[in-house]
Design a protein that fits this description.
The complex is a heterodimer of chains A (165) and B (784). Chain A is an alpha+beta fold and 165 residues long. Chain A has five helices and five strands. In chain A, the strands form two sheets. Chain A has a three-stranded antiparallel beta sheet with strand order 4-3-5, covered by helices on one side. A two-stranded antiparallel sheet of chain A has the order 1-2. Chain A is globular and about 55 Å long. In chain B, 28% of the residues lie in helices and 23% in strands. Chain B has a seven-stranded mixed beta sheet with strand order 3-5-1-12-9-10-11, with helices on both faces. Classes of the chains: A alpha+beta (165), B alpha+beta (784).
């Protein structure tokens, strides 16, 4: 049996802060976030890239953290659900999910929220089809998606009102 | 969409679409699910699972695995020999297989190590020698007599084949009923098994202190049952075991009975003195299963020419998988609720559950009632078409009436089935569209009923089904303690809403302590859609007890009679002179000064007269029933056989909606889940192997497959429900599958007699070939 590989030391930029830590070269970003940094807001539903629950933003774009090596994210800003709220104020996407009851069990919610934030950063007035296409890689077994689609639209509407109003 | 019927909710909690109290933690990622917990020196566990569907275990050698650096302990069947099962009548499982394995994926050994990878590597080093036995993979196989030759899956069974449970019930004169019929409709259906696929992967974390006290956190819908089983299996007093249910990442029935990894976590925590975590992989969850039973259904219905049902005979064969699970109850449930929806002159039910060498089936949302409902509502549609009746009006004409008894002696109270039927028919213009849409387009309708909690407990006892304690703090904060487990349906919010409404305080001033067997009174668990009705009633009673004491103290302070005290907006005031008022916190302090510590207790036991007096009468009774109706509109692609659902409108009688937004969420989620079962979800096997144990191949609807769902909340006043409430968690799923099946029949002009309605079946129906499951020609063709 070959010797276990040794850990590497690296600096990751997570939710706006640099953290230096040691992890195995084959560790996934999901494992590093949850197990090393204890950022347990990021969830796992399959660890095979099939459910979307583990989605985080890397370089501002959604990635499946279960299929991403932590070693590949060095020097690239990483945002998990814990980095979405600004200070103690909820992001409009979080507020809309809360107001409309778009989170039931809440397990898929962090993945949906970071992906929706990314969508609304590109356009605050997505059509229903655009919302559904952008979030189609995320499974939710509780909501039937109806309130999630409504919440993303509502968040966009509120963001437009803040920008222009 | 939205709640129909405007209602002033100012200052009120019940009836208002307030954000759920657990929503804040869920949108920020702060909610701690079982796998999110970690403790110093925690060990990680893995299970070694059987590669055989049916085999004798000849030997297990784990010496090599134990020597792997980092491995701390290994256990097999002989370490945990106590048999258990969720039902007292079916104690047929052990944590790890003993002597035999009965399905691919059955746990054979457990390993704990310093990290998960080491535990996984150690599992691969365990040497198990098996002697393969012939496997039983179908209902027909399981029914075969083995007296002469062959080994039963459970050799201790007294049957000569692999039948687990046989039930026969008759109500009224069934032969006379059929003799009286003008027409008899006779069809066979097959409902494929499927699974919950809750997004959270099951996880359990256990700690055993030096004092011998064991604490187990588990993603369980039933902490109380886990408590009982853990005590039995670990051979420990229940008083030394504490079960805590953290927030559950979806359940749908998949986390309602104790399973191996939870008990293994507890065992290893005690054996090693270190914290232990077991988290299942998605593949393992497909083997753990306890999902929807595949059911073969034979349905004969006799009707008069006006559609009146003179007799109905239902036969069901359930493929139970390798163990009992809730299967005895499931078997009865396939027969119990058909008469709760429609009047029938006579009713006969024969149910038969068999063991097969597949992962055990159990309860999924709608527990056993979903499969026959699909068949019955499909056949009713064919009856309506054959008799030239409008499907909606026909159902309304034969529907049960409020405050009546069904042919199988069940007590019906409030009943909004007619309102639900007309709401969906009107919203969709069903009557104008059915049978008149362009080829390939169809519209279908169906209705159903469901329980608000099982009227009898799983293990016989005379104690309450639900208990609650309400405590008021000197700072004005209120805490409700109740043994419920929140799997996303909103039970925490429901408890807070009922207590806040009763005491007239802000919902955010109420904290909920739930699902902790040390701290909370027993609630039997989140299954059979029982929590709002039962725990809600217990919480309401507890809050009323506190309220009475606060009212007495406030009345003395205000110089009025206690009956004149009103509670709202954080104040207690004189009904007649609202300016005479006291802040809630001041009244609470005055009450504590008068009566001592301010705590109220409440409990709920269902009434005793809900059912008839016959063997099997314990399954089906409920203190109330919810009613649902659904219309689906579909498009069928004649080239590919694909079915696209364009619209689902679902009306649900939930009694009074405590929080309309949460009720809508339950309706929408049910519509989605039903659509998945109707069109794509299936627990399929190839030879002995689960064909698709992952979320990519086990197809569930994505956002792009799911239409926007229109939920209609039908409110009836349920006199026995808390603030008039019934249930919304399971009932709305049941009409969805037949509504879609009926829409497909409307679209293609032929009936498909099996689920899921995958393209192959559609194409088969279109070119007129008869598939193996299409046992009879469509009714329309036979009567033409």
């Amino acid at each position: 049996m070959s010797a276990a590989p040794s850990k590497m030391l690296a600096t990751l930029n997570v939710n706006g802060r640099d953290v230096t830590l040691a992890f195995l070269p084959h560790a996934t970003l999901l494992e590093v976030l949850r197990e090393e940094l204890r950022l347990t807001g990021t969830k796992h539903g399959c660890e095979l890239g099939q459910c979307g629950a583990c989605t985080v933003l890397v370089d501002g774009a959604p990635v499946l953290s279960c299929l991403t090596l932590a070693a590949d994210t060095i020097d690239r800003p990483i945002t998990s659900v814990e980095g979405i709220a600004v200070a103690d104020a909820l992001h409009p996407v979080q507020r809309a999910f809360l107001d409309l009851g778009a989170a039931q069990c809440g397990y898929c919610t962090p993945g949906f929220i970071v992906a929706a934030v990314h969508l609304l950063e590109r356009t605050t007035s997505p059509s229903e089809t655009e919302i559904r296409e952008a979030l189609a890689g995320h499974l939710c077994r509780c909501t039937g998606y109806t309130k999630i689609v409504e919440a993303v639209a509502l968040a966009g509407q509120r963001m437009r009102a803040t920008t222009h109003g | 969409m939205g709640n129909n019927g405007a209602r002033s909710t100012e200052g009120r909690v019940v009836g208002a679409a307030l954000p759920r109290i657990d929503g804040y933690a869920k949108v920020t990622g702060a909610a701690l699910f079982a796998d999110d917990m970690a403790f110093p020196r925690m060990l990680f566990g893995r299970l070694l699972r059987s590669p055989h569907a049916h085999a004798r275990i000849l030997s297990i050698d784990y010496e090599k695995a134990l020597r792997l650096p980092g491995v701390v302990a290994i256990a097999t069947g002989r370490d945990l020999p106590v048999r258990y099962g969720i039902l007292p009548s079916t104690q047929d499982e052990t944590v790890f297989a003993i002597e035999k394995v009965r399905y691919v994926g059955e746990p054979v050994a457990g390993i704990v190590a310093e990290d998960e990878r080491t535990a996984q590597r150690a599992a691969a080093l365990i040497e198990v020698r098996y002697e393969a036995l012939p496997s039983v993979m179908s209902i027909d196989d399981a029914l075969r007599d083995l007296t002469e030759n062959g080994e039963k899956i459970h050799p201790e069974s007294r049957k000569s084949n692999n039948v687990h449970k046989d039930v026969h019930l008759t109500f009224g004169d069934i032969e006379a009923g059929f003799a009286d019929a003008d027409r008899v409709f006779d069809d066979e259906y097959f409902f494929e098994g499927n699974t919950h696929a809750a997004l959270e992967e099951h996880s359990a974390v256990a700690i055993c202190g030096a004092d011998g006290k064991l604490t187990l956190w588990s993603s369980t819908q039933t902490p109380h049952y886990l408590h009982r089983v853990a005590a039995a299996v670990l051979e420990m007093p229940a008083s030394r075991i504490r079960i805590i249910a953290p927030p559950i990442g979806g359940g749908f029935g998949g986390k309602t009975e104790p399973v191996a990894h939870e008990l293994a976590a507890a065992y290893f925590a005690r054996a090693t003195g270190r914290p232990v975590k077991f988290t299942l992989t998605r593949e393992e969850i497909f083997y753990t299963h306890r999902g929807r039973h595949p059911v073969r259904i034979h349905l004969q219905t006799g009707v008069k020419n006006d559609g009146t049902i003179t007799a109905c005979r239902l036969q069901t064969w359930l493929d139970g998988g390798a163990f009992g699970s809730y299967g005895v109850a499931t078997t009865y449930y396939t027969g119990a609720l058909l008469p709760v929806t429609y009047k029938m002159g006579a009713y006969a039910f024969d149910g038969c559950r068999v063991y097969t060498n597949k992962p055990p089936c159990g309860p999924k949302r709608g527990h056993g009632t979903t499969q026959p409902r699909y068949a019955f509502e499909s056949q009713l549609d064919d009856i309506a078409n054959a008799l030239g009746l409008d499907a909606g009006a026909y159902r309304a004409a034969i529907a049960v009436v409020p405050y009546s008894r069904t042919i199988n002696h069940l007590r019906v109270t409030s009943c909004g089935i007619r309102e639900a039927l007309s709401a969906v028919a009107e919203r969709t213009d069903y009557g104008a569209k059915h049978g008149k849409l362009a080829p390939g387009r169809g519209i279908g309708l169906a209705a159903s009923a469901y329980l608000c909690g099982a009227g009898l407990p799983i293990y016989w006892n005379p104690m309450p089904h639900s208990g609650a304690v309400v405590k008021v703090d000197r700072g004005g904060g209120v805490t409700v303690f109740c043994g419920t487990s929140d799997c996303g349906q909103g039970s925490q919010n429901m408890l807070a809403a009922i207590v806040a409404e009763t005491l007239g305080v802000d919902i955010l001033d109420v904290s909920v302590c739930a699902g902790d067997t040390d701290l909370t009174p027993v609630d039997l668990g989140s299954y059979s859609s029982r929590v709002t009705f039962m725990a809600g009633n217990a919480a309401r009673s507890a809050a009323l007890e506190v309220r009475e004491r606060i009212a007495a103290a406030a009345a003395a302070e205000l110089g009025i009679a206690p009956e004149r005290c009103a509670f709202a907006s954080g104040r207690i005031f004189d009904r007649d002179e609202p300016d005479r008022a006291l802040a809630f916190v001041d009244a609470a302090r005055a009450a504590e000064a008068r009566c001592g510590t301010l705590v109220g207790v409440g409990s709920y036991t269902p009434p005793a007269d809900l059912h008839g007096d016959f063997k099997g009468s314990g399954v089906g009774p409920s203190p109330a029933y919810s009613y649902s109706a659904c219309v689906a509109e579909v498009e069928v692609d004649f080239e590919t056989g694909e079915v696209r659902v364009d619209r689902i409108v679902l009306a649900h009688d939930c009694g009074r909606a405590l929080n309309p937004s949460i009720v809508e969420g339950q309706i929408e989620g049910s519509a989605y889940m039903g659509m998945g079962e109707a069109l794509m979800e299936e627990s399929a096997f190839r030879d002995d192997l689960h064909r698709i144990p992952n979320l990519l191949d086990y197809k569930t609807p994505t956002m792009l497959d799911t239409p926007s769902i229109e939920a209609i909340v039908i409110e009836t006043e349920e006199l026995e429900g808390p603030y008039g409430a019934k249930e919304a968690g399971e009932g709305p799923l049941n009409p969805v599958i037949p509504a879609i099946a009926n829409a497909v029949a409307d679209a293609i002009g032929a009936r498909i007699f099996a689920t899921p309605i995958v393209p192959e079946r559609v194409l088969q129906a279109l070119d007129g070939t008869t598939g193996p499951l299409r046992l009879r020609a469509p009714v329309a063709a036979r009567t033409a």
